[in-house]
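Supplementary notes (optional reading)

For those who missed the lab, this is the record we used. Protein: Succinate-semialdehyde dehydrogenase / glutarate-semialdehyde dehydrogenase. Length: 65 residues.
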Amino acid sequence: MRMEKLYINGQWKDAASGESFDVLNPADGSLVGKMAAAGKEEVLEAIDAADQTFEEWSNLPAHVR
């Protein structure tokens, strides 16, 4: 089964830890996929990317966003 990566700062990345978690169908509990488990390193990277982009993005009109 394919493991989905994390999307951070415009790039698809594996979790630095290599850890993942199962994504389950809530109706029957069957496995529908796996997702890379973001850790502290990935969270800080995502926050930094959002912080760097926020000012430019927030100045765009809604129809452009």
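If you only remember one thing from this example: Strands lie at 3-4, 6-8, 11-13, 20-24, 31-36.
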